[in-house]
Amino acid sequence: MLKKTLAALALTSALVATQSVADGHQIDLSGKTVEWIIPFSETGGSAKWANFYAPLLSEALPGNPTVVVTFNPGAGSTKGANAFQEMGYEDGTTIFGSSGSTQFPYLLSDPRVRYEYSDWNVVLASGTGGVAYLPPELSAQLGDGGDASALQGEDFIYGSQGATRLDLVPLLAWEMLGLQVEPVFGIEGRGDGRLMFERGEANIDYQTSSSFLSGVTPLVEAGTAAPWFSFGALDADGNIVRDPTFPDMPTFKEVCEATEGCETSGEQWDAWKAFFVAGFPAQKMVFLPAGAPDNAVATFTEAFAAIQERDDFAEISRARLGVYPQLTGSAAQTAMASATDVPQEAKDFVINWLSERYGVVLQ
Predict the structure, then answer these.
(1) Is residue 16 one of the residues assigned to a domain?
(2) How many domains, in total, are found in the chain?
């Protein structure tokens, strides 16, 4: 039902935004430069997502402003998000792109968080997926269905942005599979984790779909990386199913079911699924700052809706972003609500796990 509801809301909100602009309630960005702030490094999935949309957004906005993607990494995106929180709306020339690694510290009440999602104005919510991969020599040890049992004695190194970031989804998944994974915390983007893998400094990694498609597929084709599983996608009833971008890969749920000792029910599974849902179906979002007037929100909403109505959008987005919902208007607001709220039981489990496993105390 969630997928059907979001689809209906997306259509309705796009029509409303289009009518609003048609009635002249828009901002004119002629001769201006729109700065799209990404709080990560320029090598990761968020950079690829923003760089894909930026020239299309320039064409779709009234006045065809130049759209420039800039980067403000640090503290797993918290630095950039805190800075954006301090920015008030001026003239529509500043937008912000968040990711799951921005959402998770907010969900977990990380004391470094000084931003509030409800202050911001969402104009796009992009779903995505994630893929875990290994060196071919380790992948060759996997059993049927991706069974990880043979790898439980291996020592793994993983480049991580931080345990309270989106990385908690793969870190918890690998622990559920019984793997011994030592994270190296402090990288500024998932692209930096991929570079560690390429240099042989890490022997397990995951990337969001856009980064996997562009950055890891060449490694797979060269024989230096082997895909293992996707995190999956949600069907209309909220069940985890195969990712439509990677339909031939097993999901983490399938791999867990194939691996002795990994359970797809109970407190641990419920916590993993809750944070997967918060982190991926609406993982990346675009915001105008606090105080943005309705006509500015409508202008950007209509522009993103118009991009998706392009005849070539399905084709060009498949190769760069994968096959995932791109939501505007009321649908984006609904997606943001689901991405910034998880059950208290899941929060409590993760907070306790972070303390016991990594010594991370959130207070």
Answers:
(1) yes
(2) 2
Q: Is 171 helix (H, G, I), strand (E, B) or coil?
A: helix
Reply yes or no on whether the pLDDT at 12 is more than 70: no
CA-only gyration radius of the chain, Å:
20
Helix (H) or strand (E) holding 198: helix 190-198
Return left, alpha or beta for 72; rule: phi > 0 is left, psi -120 to 50 is alpha, else beta.
beta
351: left (phi over 0), alpha (psi -120 to 50) or beta: alpha
- In whole angstroms, what is the distance from residue 8 CA to residue 150 CA? 46
pLDDT score, position 75: 84
Interatomic CA distance for residues 62 and 69, integer angstroms? 18
354 assigned to some structural domain: no
DSSP for 267-283 reads HHHHHHHHHHHHHSTT-
What range does the domain containing 232 cover? 130-274
CATH of the domain at 270: 3.40.190.10
Indicate the angle between helix axes 294-308 and 329-339, nearest 10 degrees. 100
C-alpha to C-alpha distances, 190 to 48, 82, 102, 165, 339, nearest whole angstrom: 11, 20, 13, 11, 20
Q: Indicate whether 8 pLDDT > 70.
A: no
Phi then psi for 240, rounded to 5 degrees? -80, 125
